[in-house]
Amino acid sequence: MLDADWLGLARLDSLEEIKCFAKWAQRIGSSERDLGEASVFSATELSRGIAITDDREAVAVGRAHGLEVHGTVWLLACAVQDGKLNEVAAGNIVDGLSATGMRLPCTGSTFGPYVRRNGGP
């Protein structure tokens, strides 16, 4: 759906990285889905990056522990703001993700107004 050459794989192999992952798994939970969030938060903490997740509970936990955490719509809004996508393309991505069962706070046709109403990135 989107050429994401900026997206990479973060390995968590060293003892420090495994300890960081275990810490986040304990904070978030240990279900298969929670382990995915724990790996995202571990990589975020270790790289001093920004986590992207649409799981409200995980967002709250990450923010409570000092991470910068945002959702998919925020990421798409940043791409629009940076000129990497236009609003229509971002809306099409929202609709494509929604078609897979992903729950997002807006539809493709309401993406632009939603972002403007909520302050954008």
Describe this structure in words.
With 121 residues, the protein is mainly alpha-helical. It folds into 2 domains: 56 residues, no CATH class; 46 residues, no CATH class. The protein is built from 6 helices and 2 strands. β1, α3 and β2 form a beta-alpha-beta unit. α1 crosses α2 and α4 runs antiparallel to α5. It is elongated, with a radius of gyration of 15 Å. The mean pLDDT is 92. It holds the Pfam family DUF3368. InterPro entries: PIN-like_prokaryotic.
Quote the average pLDDT: 92
Structural class: mainly alpha
Overall structural domain count: 2
Strand order of the largest sheet: 1-2
Query: What percent of residues adopt helix (DSSP H or I)?
Result: 55-70%
Net shape: elongated
Low-confidence stretches: none
What share of residues are in beta strands?
Answer: under 5%
The helix tally amounts to 6
- Alpha-carbon distance between the two ends: 22 Å
Q: Quick one: biggest sheet?
A: 2 strands, parallel
How big is the Rg? 15 Å
Order of helices and strands: HHEHEHHH
The number of distinct β-strands equals 2
Q: Layout of SSEs?
A:
Blueprint: H1 15-28, H2 32-47, E1 50-52, H3 56-64, E2 68-70, H4 72-81, H5 87-99, H6 111-117
Parallel strand pairs: 1-2
